[in-house]
Amino acid sequence: MKFDIVTIFPAMFERPLAEGVIGRAVERGTVDLKVRDLRDFTTDRHRVVDDVPYGGGPGMVLKAEPIFRALDAIEAERGCPAAVILTSPQGIRFTQAEAQRLSRLPHIVLLCGRYEGVDERVRERVTEELSIGDYILSGGELPALVIVDAVARYVPGVVGDERSVAEDSFTRGLLDFPQYTRPAVVELRKAGSADPAAVDITRLAVPDVLLSGNHAEIRRWRKRQAISRTLARRPDLLADAVLDDEERQILRELQDGGDDGRD
Ligand code: 9WO
């Protein structure tokens, strides 16, 4: 899959896209990703990418023409992209379903906004405007990184173990069950609240069921945990969750029991 990212801060992409599963996919060429410096597509001596807003007001606006030239260069070099995405607070919400859909496209361009906004005429060449959440950032670079990461995970061969992608919590529509690793007991030291010299030690054990070797019981415990957590923290997710018979039964039990779902 091909990605092109257009930004005035190309260095913001270097390390994040060189680490972990995405880094390895970029190294191998499974993900063919190019970061383009918007200033390379200016024509003036000072490489100016922004200007004052027509009508007045504070701050600066990203100019349209360097962005148009960057898109023309990408198209000439790599062909017509399937999507040109502008990351912006005015966009529609980027979700897991959206990540899955975009991962089936062969070539995506991401435009990163900066300053107080982007010249409205840029939208003539934008196919989708995406927001990763309701907050204002200094620019669209971090959202672009979020989108590349979430989309690339769905590209075949990027995540080594396909099961991790198929079973991740959002694909199934439930939150994750709790995870533990060795040792079976860890000691938590807390300074005594009254006497600073007193130290009380709590032994935190792994739930017995996970050490039992009873795989049917472990599976059931994990389902119950995932469902009760979702019920307690993100009940909105249950509307679209894909549950099997056993999971539907567990959900009914938890709802009837008036359980607060904390564990
Ligand atoms: C800045 C500003 C200042 C005064 C009055 C209104 C204003 N709006 C903005 C603004 O929206 N700035 C954006 C900063 C311009 C485009 C790049 N920026 C950005 C992208 N901030 N947040 C995002 C973003 C993108 C995707 N998902 C979440 C946030």
Architecture overview:
The protein has 263 residues and is of the alpha/beta class. 35% of the residues lie in helices and 19% in strands. The protein has helices at residues 11-14, 20-28, 64-78, 96-103, 141-152, 162-167, 169-172, 208-211, 215-233, 245-256, and strands at 2-7, 32-37, 50-51, 61-62, 83-93, 107-112, 128-131, 185-191, 199-205. A hairpin with a 7-residue loop joins strand 8 (185-191) and strand 9 (199-205). Ligand 9WO binds next to strand 5.
How is this structure best summarized?
With 263 residues, the protein is α/β, with parallel strands linked by helices. The chain has helices at 11-14, 20-28, 64-78, 96-103, 141-152, 162-167, 169-172, 208-211, 215-233, 245-256, and strands at 2-7, 32-37, 50-51, 61-62, 83-93, 107-112, 128-131, 185-191, 199-205.
Structure summary, number of beta strands: 9
Task: Calculate the terminal CA-CA distance, rounded to whole Å.
Answer: 41 Å
Percentage of residues in helical conformation: 25-40%
Uncertain residue ranges? none
